[in-house]
Structures
1.
Amino acid sequence: MTALAIDVHGLTKRFGRKVAVDHVDIAVPEGQVWGFLGPNGSGKTTTIRMLCGLLKPDEGEGTCLGYRLRSETDSIKREVGYMTQRFSYWEDLSIRENLEFVARMYGVADTKAKVDETLERLGLHARQSQLAGELSGGWKQRLALAACMLHEPRLLLLDEPTAGVDPQARRDFWEEIHRLSEAGLTVLVSTHYMDEAERCDRIVYINLGKIVAQGTVPEVIQKSGLITFIIEGPDVRRLLSRLEGRPGVEHVAFFGAVLHVSGHDRDALKAALEPLRELEGYAITEATPSLEDVFIHLQQVSAVQ
Amino acid sequence: MRGFSFARLFAILMKEFIQMRRDRMTFALMIGVPVMQLLLFGFAINTDPRHLPTVVHIADDSVYARSIGAALRNSEYFDIVATARTPQEAERMLDEGDVAFAITVPVNFARDLVRGRTPQLLIQADASDPAASSIALATISELATSALKDDLVGPLASRAGKPAFTTIIQRRYNPEGITQYNIVPGLIAVILTMTMVMVTAMAMTREREKGTFENLLAMPASPFEVMIGKITPYVVVGYIQATLILLGARYVFGVPMIGSLTLLGATGGLFIAANLALGFTFSTIAKNQLQAMQMTVFFLLPSILLSGFMFPFRGMPNWAQWIGETLPNTHFLRIVRGILLKGNGPAEIWPNVWPLLIFLVVVGSVALLRYRRTLD
């Protein structure tokens, strides 16, 4: 069994009376890429901040790269690369100045060579004296990733790194992540994108500070016990309002030009769909729920509880 | 309807009020600062300072000398805090700033008076702050007529009604009573306070506002590293400012520079560091740049008004002087004026150096303790 890059138990953080993170256990083996999902305000950022020593947990213990979470934050900081949700490099410094600053802060040997190499790899060598604040969102994201990789960390904690980034840049970003992971790097990345979740070895879904599901994507789908029917046909979107609120129908969503109707009770779902079978030109088939169906379901379930 | 809408205006007004109420710190400052300042400065500032510490050297003890002493006291302008045995002792006290006046009753004062001559009373005043000494000096001339009224009886009765003695006034350190000699060196202290406190307070809160602070925290840097790293560039800026003001003082205002500029430079470094540490402390408290700015102003006003920069320090009531004594500005003002105008050396300025050291250590420790290594 490989060693665990992240191994925490009962991690809890309160802000005043609000429990932001509620007894979270995470164990990420070295070299894996884990996706961290959940709605806004579910506690993803708070958890990540506790992992890299930016917040003190109120409860819970554990290790990050083998260092104790509470007492060895300095060692953790040295070997973890953390990319904040908001671009947090210095906009009034040039690209090169930012990278040099980071390299010096981590005591990277031969700063100049390392920065040159990074600039070359990023394709930013020609623009190195441009101010970071002038970069577009995609370039800022690349710069941020390069900067938090400068000191060759063993663990990357990425907080919604691809928010607001175009599909091509996102794809490039994930290729880079997978390449780094093959080289032995462990990655925990929070995201709202389903396609990104599907690129992860495992996913953790958190809502209202609690982990509600975790495992590989098929495991999470299967464990949800959700049943989904797909309706295809002309102008199928107009059926959405007719189905919502029917007994057995827990949620209906329109994507990819088809309607996803999900619930837990197969018979009730079938009964609800029965009147539609008489309509001309519609095909109703049972299918594996998509990850999105499962997440919407999980979010609704925890909201009710 | 297009154009102006009262409903929209009302909506905006409500939103602003709600936000103002949410930002408790700003609200407290907006309400508290004017009240405090009104109370502080309203009572503290006195351009007609009384009870100025005075040393007397009585070379000729007589009933007349005692009457003059009593008259000085009764005038309320002079508090006789010491009696010097020698003229040198009186002068030393004036040099060190322990007293504002040294009054000497010369030898044969009584004899001359009785013989019908007009004896002279020597008054040496610390005129480095002309405002502090001028009114008091004006009273002395009046005393010459009134002080000995009751003593001049019998054969001497004819002498009453006209000045019984003349006064020789020596304005020390700033003989012409040029206000700029006092104000311009003082400006070094005030300008350094203003910019040093403000820039550090802003520099740190800007990091927090922009979100770059999170990144800085995620890096392995100790609070001390961050503090020193942030402060040092401004020490350089502070020295440049001080140099510019000194050049202006010398060549524009012709302020005398009697003492050692090296000594001034060394103590200036201490003063700059004290202010930067305070700015850093503010930045650990302020949530945004506006708050940092408000805190700076809050500190700046007493530094100008209670330090002896604008108004005579000794004119303030005791409690205001106590507040003044805690401000670095007060001490650095005395150091600057002492070195430039009086030619003070290390021994004479030491009483004002150690308070700066204490301030630096205390405030620096507070800054380091308050600096959060986490985002909690």
2.
Amino acid sequence: MVAVVTAFSDGAEHESQRIARALRRRDSEFIGRIVSQYHCRLLRYLVYWTSRREQAEDLVQETWLRVLEHAEQYDGRLRFEPWLFSIARNLAIDHLRKQQTATHRMCQENEPGVDPPAPDFESPFFAAARSEDAKRIAAALGALEPIYREALLLRFQEDLSLAEIAQVAGAPITTVSSRIYRGLSMLEAALGGGTDAA
Amino acid sequence: MPLDSHEKARCLLHRSLVEGISLNDRHWLDAHAGQCAECARYADLSARAVRALDWFAIEPDPAAALRVENIVRSRAEEMRSAESRVKSLWIGTGIALFLTFTGSAVTWHALAGLASQWNLPSRVWQIVFAAFWVLPSFLLALLPLFRRIFLGEDSDSKGQTI
């Protein structure tokens, strides 16, 4: 009877609570599994933010280390993904801010022989684009500001609710939905332009 | 067909993708799209735009993924052992404090009892009580000095060889 009850409670236990407990206990086996499980999604999210694959890969590692440091803050009552993405987001913003400051400083100093990093906004998307339509969408995604790309990704690929996206972005739901509408309109315009041209 | 109905259709179409719409609105939208080729084309375009996001699958590098996993796992283990050391330290401190207070009270009463049995002046047993606490620490503090004098160890030179 006890075994049945235990099995039932184990089965009923929410995944997010299991993650929260593993993080608090520093259960390296379980943590290793979730790192592997979320790696692809976290990498994609950070690529959408930074537009640079190498930076995104560095930030994935930093994100997990920060997750470990702040494990006490996650109690498992809400889904894990929004919390994970909000940590990744903060790191990506800090990183972009530092990069912008460095670029600005280099431009101001106008040092001979030192060029600011070349814009590389389309490369990860162009790298994945196979067809003409995909290239048009890649260009549109590259032209979008990261906050719009982020909103589109979280809504349509991560399937997060508007409330969860608002939690990640630290913005009101109305702001988040308007970002999604705007991003979607830009993608439609990119595809529509191609269709018309064809 | 009034212009407003096309605007309403586009608005509902976006809302259906972003936040969902009611069943009535869904019926209205389907009916409108069935009659209006322009809005049907727009609906198709919106669906394609959303599907298009799936084209940009970011293929993870398995070696990089494994490296991150190993780094995070070893960091988790480091943190767990560090936290367990801190926990042991707190437990040890708690036990030490408890023993200090209870030990002091027991020793005080025991020495007072013995002193009254042997008719010793209170000053004597109080000095013994003070010595009971101070002497071990004093001897421990002298230990490095003894080692240096009798064993000839030189802590300064030891520090420099590292």
3.
Amino acid sequence: MVKKLITIIAVVVALAQGQASALYFGDIGTPLSEAAFSPVGWGPIQPDTSGGGWGGIAAGPLSLDGKCRTIWDASDDDPSASLTFPTSITAMAVRHLKGLADDSFDVEVGVASWGSAVDDVSGSEVWAISSFMGTPGKKLTLTATGDEWSLFDTYGQVAVDWVVATQPGETLQVWTFDDDDNPTVPEINLNPYGPAMAFIGGPSGAAPPEWIATLVGREGVWTGDAGFTILLNIPNQMVPNPYKEICVEIGFLGDLDGSPDVYPSGGVVVGKTETVQMVDPVTGWQKLTASYRIEPNPDKELIFSYFSNGAAVDYVAVYTVCVPEPLTISLLGFGGLMLWRRRRAA
Amino acid sequence: MKKLVAICVVVVLAAGAAQAGPTYFVDLGTPAGEAGYTLFDWGPVQPSTSPGTWGGMGSGTAPGSFDQLCRTVWATPGTPGSIMEFSSSASVTFPRPITSATIRHLVGQANDSYVSAGGNYWGTFTDTVGGETWTSTTFSGLPGKTLLITATGQAWSGFATYGQLGIDWISATPIPAPGAVLLGSIGAGLVGWLRRRRSL
């Protein structure tokens, strides 16, 4: 699960910085990124402050800055830390360290509980990505729930690398195919409008698609000797909006068997762009990037992508946004401009 | 000589036309009839799963049916024998894009209305509700590899047992293969060239 996730985090960041996206991305440990989200109660930047391996964060491909902070540290008695977003968020994913301590924590947005992450205290150090959703709100609070561990005074507890969050109308789902479940839910699941699901199927009567643990440097891939199709079911915000934007990225090896098709439950696909880029000429891994515009926004859409005999798929990432009335867009754009100006001024 | 050239032209054009086929035929409910096509979101094989009349299929007398078996577009998710059933839609992905499809469907006691799409919206069939009649309806539109059929009526009283919108078979016309287009173009060009030379 190494190289694939380099690309996926790049996708998330690209989406967060793209014009079509309003995703919030807070890179904890990088002051410029954190500043947009009014951080309160976080420990010092790590590993800079205390040294240590921190789960290999400096070398880990999923960390953009190789830095993190803990939500609980010796400088205060409060086991919580918070971020406050400019507008309400509907779902969020957090990359956190399941380390040697009990790094369990609760997630609260506003006054609503969004759930918990439970650390089994296995004695290893593993970075995990957990997704949460619930009643929308602006203030995200993470609270450590485990007992202080033996080196708490030195290192603190519950390290966080980054947080990505969606606003109303947005969804983000990333399938990394960590196991052979079929159908399968996305490993990063930020869709508050219903259960996003991927189905992998091949021609009837032929050998079914096969999940492989490792293939040409990537972990967790689907392949098929008879060709195969991946069907994605993406529920949407069921509120009328003028249009919807969809961004798809697929990491694959081999050949596509035609362009992906988007089937909206209503409306018409009016815009479509697609590019295929060779990511690694040595191994042959490529990525397909596609975007679609549907007018007006449907309640859901199905996305079919087709792969030739012997092709393999490493990951699929889908970002969608139902775009509201122009006035609201202008306000959002204005808000973004103000943030940018504040950052520049800082 | 002219006659020989004309025969050659006809042969070339005929070969091009022949390459445009064959028509795809998906006989739902029969493994051999479904082989080669990718199916998502279909209910179980009927009437074998939920015995009943099924427009005569239950007694093996449904007109126009080859195997007297069908599947429903919509069934309760997780019904044994279904193919990844999760919604009121069902799809067939063909080896190549299709331009039209004829669907043999049961106009049954439920509101078996549906929409047929092949990458783009192709049309709608509206059930008058009542009786049980197998009907063939043809749709066409912009080419697409996947034919998506969506039941648009409300779930009927017997939905939990029988599902909704039975499909017996689907016949579809693929776009001509690239080789056929090339061959046809060569043939057409040859005809034009011969006509300009006034030798045909």
4.
Amino acid sequence: MYIIVVGGGRVGFYLSKELLEAGHEIVVLEKNERRARQIADELGSIVLPRDGCEGKHLAEAGANRASIVAAVTGDDEDNMVICQMAKHHFQVPRTIARVNNPRNESLFRHLGVDEVISPTKMALGAIEQDIPVHEVLHLAQLGAGEMELLEAQIGPDSPAIGRQPADINLPEGCRLFVVLRGDEVMPLRPETVFRQGDKVLAVSRADCELDLRRQLIGDSPAAEASAAT
Amino acid sequence: MGCGRVGAGLAERMAREGHDVTILDLESSAFNRLEGDFPGQALRGDGTDEAVLRRAGTDGADMFFALTEGDNRNALAAQLASETFGVRRVVAKINDPVRAEAYTALGLATICRTRLLIDALARYGGMEPDPGADGVQPATAHHVHAEERRQAAIATGREGR
């Protein structure tokens, strides 16, 4: 496959290295000439010392025959422009953007970027698994990232304690399916009664997370604050 | 967004005409370009950050101008304003003529200083005016339509090569 990587920072460098080793045809666009030479010294003459945001440089790199353009610079705005130019101007079938501000993720998807990679969100996800500050853990993103696999822990103040699934009022986009109680894994049944300490797994659209939090964790100020971030 | 000479001048003029104006810049020193009695609001912050735009009142704004020196920052902020906040009249200053034209086809009204100046000077020199360089260029299409074109291109067989 012919792949254009824009941005020769650490991410771009190691990405290109791995892709080369996997046998793909790669061109790296790196606007800093010194950095471009360093990469060429390591990986061979696969580097163009050009700014990939400029249409003519993408053309020079052969964007109109590329199967993938990966925009992995440190600047969200550059990555967005690169993907939009690649996709809409050069009809590249698949565009991948690194996004640093997690809030830009949904905009990028809306604008037609095929794959959005958020190091910030990945690191945050890893940290949340270790330190359950939010009480709702993001375990995985499903599909194009619109759906998430979540884990909600029923604390002492949870309004769900003593209630059954039918009593929990959740929107369409959110489904509970498994309860982890101690070492037991229990599928959710109509007769299940929630207890303090239960961990409930849910698949939810991002916009339903607040409802899930309200129903299973409660309206504590901490929950509200973390939901707002 | 962007309190340079153009941003400051435009904000001054619109605020004096009685509009409710907020101007954003990364550097508070940029606000020195505003007159001491500027009747609008000046806010320090990054206009490519959705949270900052929200604080600036973009939700509910009638117009949004992205006028920083960075074409890509302007394109990102302008698309946040139009797509995320639903602002109806959005203009992005994009000085690279190729990118400016690409973005008018993706749904942004753009103004391209490079073409504007070339045209003004060429006309002064007696040349014919460039019709594509006259002021703000309205959007000619939207990225959703561009997506349809892309799907057509995929259908012709570039996917998965």
